[in-house]
Amino acid sequence: MAVYVDPAIWERWNRRWCHLLADSTDELHTFAAGLGLKRSRFQSKPGRPWIDHYDIDEDRRREAVALGATEITWREVGEQTARKRASALAERQYAAGATTSSTATNPPSDTSS
After folding, report:
1. Which of 23, 34, 106, 113 might form a disulfide with 2, Cβ 3.0–4.6 angstroms?
2. What does the pLDDT read at residue 101?
3. Considering only CA atoms, which of 18, 26, 38, 37 is closest in space to residue 1?
């Protein structure tokens, strides 16, 4: 399971916060459940799975690292996000192309005769 935490730099409610990220949404939810995070804390945008994450405070960040989360830099977050985005968009293009090409190679038969 590949789960990551970025630096805790966001200040709110007298605490510092960061992001809990993973290579897949399933890995993210599994790890978050192990930390005791509620699914309602999950942050996602429809059609943009490359930005799925949980916000966690410094204390939870330490727990996450103790449980095996990898600490990464903001640069690494950007690189990871770009890879996940490119992969998701390529999958969409492939799916759209597969639909188009199957229609082109197997046109509907003419049953009017």
Report:
1. 23
2. 52
3. 26
